[in-house]
Design brief:
Oligomer: single chain
Strand order of the largest sheet: 7-17-14-21-12-9-8
Radius of gyration: 28 Å
Number of helices: 14
Mean pLDDT: 78
Structural class: alpha+beta
Helix content: 10-25%
Distance between the termini: 63 Å
Low-confidence stretches: 1-12, 308-316, 362-368, 536-584, 610-677
Shape: flat
Largest sheet: 7 strands, antiparallel
C-alpha cells in the first residue's frame, strides 16, 4: 500500500470514529432532556453540559477542571450533587467551541477508573442550591481542636494488635473496629453495665484534651467512658441516637486521620450533612444529642466543598448549600467518642426518643408502649420515620441478602415492555427488578440510603427519594412499578398520594404495576406460603390440603393464583368492604409472624440476623433449600458462619418477615460459642383487604385499572394512564 492510500484509509477511519462520537453525543443529549430536563442546542454558546462528567459517576472537580482549562479560560464550573453531568461556562465562545471539538468522546481518567465525556451546548446554566437547613440545636464543630502532634500521640495510644483484649473490650464489627475504655458499650442491648467498669480507665494521653474540653466549656464534667472506632475507606455506622439512659447530655467526638461526612436526620425528615475534618471536635448537646440521629454512610468518596481539600471552608454548614463541591476519597479515620455514664433516669425534653421515659432504647419483641395510629400528617411522618425508614436503613444488608429472585408475575410485566421503554421503580429496595429487562432504560429510587448504596454497588441507576414526591419529570415514563411500598404509608391520604405520584410519572398510555400485602392470606381456599410454612413447621408433616405439586409451582417454587379481573369484577364500592378492627385502644398491635392477620394496621417484627442461622422464606421450597444449606454447612464448615452469606436463596413476599431462631457468636475471649441475642425491629404495615387497592386507585383521575389479581398473599393491580 502506498503512502497516499494509507493516508486515505486513516481519514476514513477517523471519519467513522467521529460519526460514532456524534451519535453518542446526540444520545447523551436526548437522555439529559428525558431524565433531567436539560435542553441542549446546536447553536454555539459559551456554556456546555458535560455528560458523564459529574460527581454522581465518580468524577472529581480537579480532574474535570484540569481537562476543561486546557481548552481556554473557564468562567464557572457547576457540578450538581449526585448528578452524572456538569456545566461549564467559558470566557469566550471560541474556547467553548474548542472544548466541544477536542473533548467530545475523550476519556477522562478519574483515579483507577475512566469515563468518556460528551459535550453539548446549552443556552444558560442554572445553579440550583438546596434549601439551607439550619444545624441541629446544640451541635458545634471545633476545627483543629488538637495539634498534629497530639493526633499522633492519641493514635499511638490505641493498640489494635490484640484481638483478645478484656481490658478495652475490643470488637471487630461488620463495618469497623472498636475499643471501649472505662465501660463497655454493649451492642446487644445498646447500653452499658454500670456496675462492671473495665479494668483500665481512659488512656492517660486523653487527659490533656479532656481538660481543655472542660476548660473551654464544651463539657461540664470529665467523661468516664470512651469508645474508639476505626473506619477504613468504604465503612460507616448506621444512623442512631446514643442511648439516653446510658449517658449524660454532652457527647464529644474527636475525628483523627481522614475526614468524613456525617449525616444528621430529624424525625420530621430534615437532613444535614456535616464535614468532619481530621483533628476536629464535634460537640453534641440538647436536641442534637437526644433527638437527631447521626450516622456515616458507608462509601469510599464524599462530596465536600472544593475551596480547599486540605482545609475546607465552612465545614460547619450544611454541605447541601455549597455550589462548589468535589469528591474526596476517604482514608482511615479513627474517632474518639467521650461520654459520661448516667446513674439516674434521663429527664430530657424529648420523651418520644427517650428510653427512660418509655421509648425503647433497642427494638424488642414487645415494645413497652406500641405507637398509636396517626391522626395527622405530622404523626404519620413520625411513625413512618421510626417504624419504616430507620428500620430499613438498619436492616438493609440483611434485608438485601433475602431479596434475590424477582417474582415471576412482576418479571412478566417487565418483560412485556417494548425495547427502549423507560421504567421507574419507585421503592426499588436493593434493585432486584432494575436488571430484569436489559432492553429497557430503568431508574430506581428508595427512601433508604443504605439500600440505594447497594443498588449503586450493583451498577444500577438509583437515587434516594420519598415515594410521595419523586424528583422526576411528569409524563416521562412508559412504565412504573411499586412493589411492597404503599402498604408502608400509615394514612389513606398518604397512600393515595403515592398512587397519584406513580400516575404523574407515566406518559399517556403508560402502565403501572402495584403490589401490596393482603389481609387475606387465604384466598379461594388456597393458603399463601406465608401461612403454609408455619403449619408445616408446627405439624411435623405435610397436610394434603397444603401440598403443591411440582407441576403447579412457578419458577421460584410458588404457586400463583391467576385471577386477573377488571376492578369492577374484583371489588365493590368502598362501603361494601367489611371493616376490620385496626387496633386495640388506638394502639398498633404486634403481629405474630406466619399467622393470619386480625388487624389492618400493625407492626411486623424483623429479627436481624447475626449468625449463620436460617431465615424463613416466602416459598416453602426456599425454606427447604435453606435448611439443606444449613445442614450441609454444619457438616462441612466449622468456621464461624457469615451472617450475610451471598448464597442465601430465600426471597420473601412484600412485607414478609424473616423469623430467626437465636443465633450464636464466636466469643473473642475464649473461642467458645455463646448465645447472642438478636435485635428485633418492628416495621409498620397497612395490609389491604380485597377491593381496597382498586378503590384507592380509582380515586386518581386520568387512570383506569386495567386488571387486578391476588398473587401469593398480595393484592396487585395494573393501571393504565389515559
Amino acid at each position: 500500500m502506498d503512502l497516499s492510500m494509507e493516508n486515505d484509509t486513516k481519514i476514513v477511519r477517523r471519519s467513522k470514529e467521529q460519526k460514532k462520537v456524534l451519535r453518542k453525543q446526540i444520545k447523551a443529549s436526548h437522555t439529559l432532556l428525558k431524565h433531567e430536563g436539560v435542553n441542549t442546542t446546536s447553536q454555539r454558546t459559551k456554556s456546555l453540559v458535560v455528560a458523564n462528567g459529574g460527581l454522581g459517576n465518580g468524577v472529581g472537580r480537579e480532574e474535570l477542571s484540569a481537562a476543561l482549562r486546557e481548552m481556554g479560560e473557564v468562567e464557572t464550573l457547576f457540578m450538581p450533587p449526585h448528578k452524572p453531568y456538569a456545566f461549564v461556562t467559558y470566557r469566550s465562545e471560541e474556547s467553548a467551541q474548542k472544548a466541544h471539538v477536542h473533548l467530545n468522546g475523550q476519556k477522562l481518567q478519574c483515579g483507577e477508573s475512566s469515563v468518556t465525556l460528551y459535550l453539548s451546548y446549552v443556552h444558560s446554566v442554572t445553579c440550583e442550591k438546596e434549601a439551607c437547613v439550619p444545624l441541629p440545636e446544640g451541635l458545634v464543630l471545633v476545627e483543629d481542636f488538637v495539634s498534629p502532634e497530639e493526633e499522633a500521640l492519641l493514635l499511638t495510644a490505641v493498640d489494635w494488635s490484640y484481638t483478645n483484649d478484656d481490658v478495652t473490650a475490643q470488637k471487630a464489627l461488620k463495618h469497623r473496629r472498636v475499643k471501649h475504655y472505662g465501660f463497655e458499650f454493649r451492642y446487644d442491648n445498646n447500653n452499658v453495665d454500670k456496675d462492671k467498669p473495665l479494668p483500665a480507665g481512659l488512656p492517660a494521653e486523653c487527659q490533656p484534651v479532656l481538660q481543655r474540653c472542660v476548660k473551654n466549656g464544651h463539657m461540664d464534667i470529665m467523661p468516664d467512658q470512651l469508645t474508639v472506632n476505626q473506619y477504613e475507606s468504604g465503612q460507616g455506622i448506621p444512623p442512631h441516637v446514643d442511648t439516653h439512659s446510658a449517658f449524660e447530655d454532652t457527647i464529644l467526638s474527636l475525628s483523627l486521620g481522614s475526614k468524613t461526612v456525617m449525616e444528621f436526620r430529624h424525625p420530621d425528615g430534615r437532613i444535614v450533612h456535616m464535614l468532619l475534618p481530621g483533628r476536629s471536635l464535634l460537640v453534641m448537646k440538647g436536641e442534637s444529642r437526644y433527638l437527631w440521629t447521626h450516622g456515616i454512610t458507608p462509601r469510599k468518596f464524599d462530596m465536600v466543598p472544593a475551596c480547599d481539600l486540605q482545609r475546607p471552608a465552612n465545614a460547619t454548614s450544611d454541605l447541601g448549600t455549597h455550589s462548589s463541591l468535589t469528591l474526596s476519597k476517604r482514608g482511615t479515620r479513627t474517632s474518639f467518642t467521650f461520654r459520661k455514664i448516667r446513674h439516674e433516669p434521663c429527664r430530657c425534653a424529648f420523651p418520644s426518643a427517650c428510653d427512660s421515659q418509655g421509648a425503647p432504647s433497642v427494638p424488642s419483641t414487645s415494645p413497652p408502649s406500641p405507637p398509636s395510629l396517626p391522626c395527622c400528617h405530622a404523626d404519620a411522618a413520625r411513625l413512618e420515620e421510626e417504624y419504616v425508614h430507620r428500620v430499613y436503613d438498619a436492616i438493609a444488608s440483611h434485608f438485601s441478602s433475602t431479596r434475590h429472585s424477582p417474582w415471576p408475575r412482576v418479571c412478566h410485566f417487565l418483560s412485556s415492555l417494548p425495547p427502549g421503554s423507560v421504567l421507574a421503580d419507585v421503592g426499588c429496595g436493593n434493585g432486584k427488578y432494575l436488571g430484569v429487562n436489559p432492553e429497557v432504560i430503568a431508574v430506581g429510587c428508595d427512601r433508604s440510603r443504605a439500600l440505594i448504596q447497594i443498588c449503586a454497588e450493583r451498577g444500577f441507576q438509583a437515587f434516594v427519594s420519598d415515594a410521595l414526591s419523586v424528583p422526576l419529570q411528569t409524563a416521562t415514563f412508559d412504565a412504573c412499578i411499586s412493589i411492597a411500598v404503599i402498604h408502608h404509608f400509615s394514612t389513606q391520604e398518604r397512600r393515595l398520594t403515592a398512587v397519584r405520584e406513580l400516575v404523574r410519572l407515566l406518559k399517556p398510555g403508560g402502565r403501572a404495576l402495584i403490589y401490596v400485602w393482603a389481609f387475606e392470606q387465604e384466598y379461594k381456599q388456597q393458603k399463601s406460603k406465608y401461612l403454609k410454612d408455619y403449619n408445616k413447621e408446627h405439624s411435623g408433616n405435610h397436610s394434603p390440603n397444603n401440598s403443591i405439586s411440582e407441576a403447579s409451582q412457578g419458577p421460584d417454587g410458588n404457586k400463583s393464583i391467576d385471577d386477573s379481573k377488571t376492578h369492577t369484577e374484583n371489588s365493590g364500592p368502598v362501603d361494601n368492604i367489611p371493616d376490620v378492627s385496626k387496633a386495640t385502644d388506638g394502639k398498633l398491635s404486634i403481629h405474630t409472624n406466619r399467622t393470619a392477620f386480625n388487624t389492618r394496621d400493625l407492626l411486623v417484627p424483623w429479627h436481624l440476623k447475626r449468625g449463620g442461622v436460617r431465615g424463613e422464606g416466602e416459598s416453602g421450597e426456599d425454606v427447604k433449600k435453606e435448611k439443606r444449606k444449613e445442614k450441609s454447612k454444619t457438616i462441612s464448615d466449622n468456621s464461624c458462619p457469615n451472617s450475610l452469606n451471598s448464597n442465601q436463596d430465600p426471597d420473601s413476599s412484600p412485607g414478609f418477615d424473616i423469623s430467626l431462631t437465636s443465633g450464636s457468636r464466636l466469643d473473642a475471649t475464649d473461642g467458645k460459642s455463646k448465645p447472642s441475642p438478636e435485635p428485633v425491629f418492628h416495621r409498620y404495615y397497612h395490609v389491604f383487604q380485597q377491593g381496597e387497592l382498586e378503590q384507592l386507585c380509582v380515586q386518581v383521575s386520568g387512570v383506569k385499572v386495567q386488571s387486578s389479581y391476588h398473587d401469593q398473599g398480595n393484592w396487585c393491580v395494573i393501571l393504565e394512564k389515559d
